[in-house]
């Protein structure tokens, strides 16, 4: 058994230590907000925060997440920055199919916590690992600027 801290709560899980965190979130804990895309750290759909850093849950064994504060999309609105990002996403109507958007919001929130007023270049760099097959990139960029108070 491994003990994890997920969204501020201690959770005991049964999965083996080398099980990817994404599997634990979705299959054991039924937290389906974090998405499976590629399973190979290539798309960003599974992005969560580990101690505030964007991390790919599909390639993070639970043993590596133990002892860290895990934040998922279900609790991103609990922080002031995450709430601003969520509101900006809704106001700009960013999602198309929506599949990538949990990961996009997680990445955007980590960016704004690190760089409160990012430039377009900062945004492109920080978000380059989060793929959107619907091509919502211009709206993602606009929403990040809006959440930063620049638009
Ligand atoms: S599912 Fe983890 S990066 Fe694609
Ligand atoms: S909104 Fe469809 S993949 Fe990004």
Short description:
By secondary structure, the protein is of the alpha+beta class. It has six helices and five strands. The chain has a five-stranded mixed beta sheet with strand order 2-1-5-3-4, sandwiched between helices.
**How is the biggest beta sheet arranged?**
5 strands, mixed
Unreliable stretches (pLDDT < 50, length at least 5) are none
Number of contiguous helices: 6
Q: List all distinct small molecules, including ions and cofactors, that are bound in this structure.
A: FE2/S2 (inorganic) cluster
Question: What structural class results from the helix and strand content?
Answer: alpha+beta
> How far apart are the termini?
47 Å
Strand tally: 5
Question: What's the Cα radius of gyration?
Answer: 15 Å
Q: What is the helix/strand order?
A: EEHEEHEHHHH
Tell the overall outline: globular
β-sheet strand percentage: 5-15%
Helix content: 25-40%
Mean pLDDT: 97
Biggest sheet strand line-up: 2-1-5-3-4
Protein name: (2Fe-2S)-binding protein
InterPro entries: 2Fe-2S-bd, 2Fe-2S-bd_dom_sf, 2Fe-2S_ferredoxin-like_sf, 2Fe-2S_ferredoxin-type, 2Fe2S_fd_BS, Beta-grasp_dom_sf, Diverse_Oxidoreductases
Organism: Duganella dendranthematis
Keywords: 2Fe-2S, Iron, Iron-sulfur, Metal-binding, Oxidoreductase
Characterize the structure shown:
The protein has six helices and five strands. A five-stranded mixed beta sheet has the order 2-1-5-3-4, sandwiched between helices. The N and C termini lie far apart (47 Å). It has 151 residues and is α+β, with helices and mostly antiparallel strands. Helix content is 38%, strand content 14%. The site of one FE2/S2 (inorganic) cluster (FES) has 11 residues, from loops.
């Amino acid at each position: 058994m491994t003990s994890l801290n997920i969204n501020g709560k201690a959770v005991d899980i049964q999965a083996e230590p080398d099980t990817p965190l994404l599997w634990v979130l979705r299959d054991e804990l039924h937290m389906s907000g974090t998405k499976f895309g590629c399973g190979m750290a290539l798309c960003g759909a599974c992005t969560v925060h580990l101690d505030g850093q964007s991390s790919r849950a599909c390639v993070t064994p639970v043993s590596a997440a133990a002892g860290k504060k895990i934040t998922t999309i279900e609790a991103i609105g609990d922080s002031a920055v995450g709430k601003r990002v969520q509101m900006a996403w809704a106001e700009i109507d960013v999602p198309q199919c929506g599949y990538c958007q949990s990961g996009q919001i997680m990445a955007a929130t980590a960016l704004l916590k690190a760089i409160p007023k990012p430039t377009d270049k900062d945004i492109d760099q920080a978000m380059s690992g989060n793929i959107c097959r619907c091509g919502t990139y211009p709206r993602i960029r606009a929403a990040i600027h809006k959440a930063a108070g620049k638009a």
